[in-house]
Amino acid sequence: MEYIKAASTTEIPQGTMKKVNVSGKVILLANVDGKFYALDNACPHSGGSLADGKSNGDVVTCPKHGAQFNLKTGEAVGDAKILFFKTKPSNAGCYEIKIDGTNLFIGI
Known about the structure:
The protein has a single domain (3-107), classed as Rieske [2Fe-2S] iron-sulphur domain (Rieske Iron-sulfur Protein), CATH 2.102.10. 0% of the residues lie in helices and 51% in strands. The protein has strands at 3-8, 17-22, 25-32, 35-40, 54-56, 59-61, 68-70, 76-78, 80-82, 85-87, 94-95, 97-100, 103-107. A four-stranded antiparallel beta sheet has the order 2-3-4-11, with no helix packed on it. The chain has a four-stranded antiparallel beta sheet with strand order 5-6-7-8, with no helix packed on it. The chain is elongated and about 50 Å long.
């Protein structure tokens, strides 16, 4: 696995998220209680940008259909809703993070 610099820890204050491009992948970086996590930015349900969604603690809600994902694990924790129908999305892909000083590296 190769670790590639994605951002600086100072760019992502606690409780915020940031979308980054790393090796052709669009990845969501999140700071949850001072710890950093990385997920695929595209919602597995419909491709919505999770970075454009809202985070609440360790959960991000996709702005397209409301699917929810745990920022720490990528696990789908809330169904997507289209009109009156609910569907369980797949889990979001997760990436390992290493920190060196203030540099965030993502394992690709």
